[in-house]
TrEMBL record:
InterPro entries: Cell_wall_metabolism_enzyme, Dup_hybrid_motif, M23ase_b-sheet_dom
Matching Pfam families: Peptidase_M23
PANTHER family for the chain: L-ALA--D-GLU ENDOPEPTIDASE, PEPTIDASE-RELATED
Coiled-coil boundaries: none
Protein name according to UniProt: M23 family metallopeptidase
M23ase beta-sheet core domain residues: 193-287
Keyword Glycoprotein carried by entry: no
GO molecular function, one term: metalloendopeptidase activity
Species per Swiss-Prot/TrEMBL record: Cryomorpha ignava
Alphabetically ordered keywords of this record: Membrane, Signal, Transmembrane, Transmembrane helix
Membrane listed as a keyword: yes
Length: 295
């Protein structure tokens, strides 16, 4: 490409530097309102500066304001975070599903008895593990542990018929068994028997079924030595035919605390036993719906 003549270059520079006067005149009065001296070079520089400023403003609005979300194809930051969280949760759920699947497969093997001396089992990572020489006979330690747990359960609060407690508006109420023995007479409101009779060995202690306050501790002709306890939730428990009472009116008791000794006092009795009643909001309940008396 041929180079420009130095004379032509100087001529072009002089043209760019030539001064022109910009004049604004009132068309009616021909008064001069504004005038300025301009050169083509100044005009080009001014236009370039305005273009740069406009570009900077537009880029700033796009980068630092929510306007960028209206650009087609641009993804929202929250959308990207939600997509990432969804992917992580999906991965975690898939891993948990594999673990549960492995658990159910192993449980199925155990229930079906297919785990023998040489059996394979599925682990949580989907791999299989070979078991050899397994012994499923009951060990001495296992038998001792079972006996210990069963002996402790005899003195634990019973959760029998928790559904009945919830239906009566007594969720979470766990009754302690007052005494374990043989139920000789069950609850029967039709004949006026509003409790249960539990026969047990003479001299055994009777326990409070729930936390409360003793509101009666006296002797009656038909019930003998009777003790009544007021509990929360408008509950009252009654213990009759005792040989001795261990608590007085006003005493605070807790579930499982000894309150009397089983006996044969009163006219309506034919041997050492406990007549136990449970009342809720002034109505009698069948104690066997909430407490297991069998030893």
């Amino acid at each position: 490409m041929a180079k420009k003549n130095p004379k032509e270059r100087k001529k072009l520079i002089r043209k760019l530097r030539n001064k022109y006067r910009l004049v604004i005149i009132n068309d009616a009065t021909f008064d001069e309102r504004f005038s300025a001296f301009l050169t083509p070079l100044n005009v080009i520089a001014g236009v370039a500066l305005v273009f740069v400023i406009i570009t900077a403003v537009v880029v700033s609005l796009v980068l630092f304001t929510p306007l960028k979300e209206y650009i087609p194809g641009y993804s929202d930051t929250n959308m990207r975070l939600n997509a990432l969280n969804a992917a992580l949760k999906a991965d975690s759920l898939e891993e948990a599903q594999d673990q549960y699947q492995a658990y159910f497969v192993n449980l199925q093997h155990i229930l079906n008895g297919t785990i023998g001396k040489d059996s394979t089992d599925v682990e949580g990572d989907g791999e299989t593990k070979v078991y050899t020489g397994l012994d499923f006979s009951v060990s001495k330690e296992d038998s001792l542990l079972r006996a210990e747990i069963e002996s402790k359960e005899q003195y634990a609060l019973t959760t029998q018929n928790a559904t009945s407690s919830a239906f009566l508006g007594l969720p979470g109420v766990l009754f302690f068994t007052p005494i374990r023995g043989t139920v000789t007479s069950s609850f029967n409101s039709a004949i006026g028997h509003l409790g249960v009779d539990v026969a047990a060995q003479e001299g055994e202690a009777i326990k409070a079924v729930y936390d409360g306050t003793v509101i009666m501790a006296s002797f009656t002709s038909d019930g003998g030595n009777v003790i009544q306890i007021q509990h929360s939730n408008n509950l009252i428990s009654i213990y009759k035919h005792n040989s001795a009472l261990l608590k007085n009116v006003g005493d605070q008791v807790v579930a499982g605390e000894s309150i009397a000794i089983i006996g044969n006092s009163g006219e309506l009795t034919d041997g050492p036993h406990l007549h136990f009643e449970l009342w809720y909001n002034g109505s009698p309940l069948d104690p066997q719906d909430f407490i297991a008396f069998s030893s």
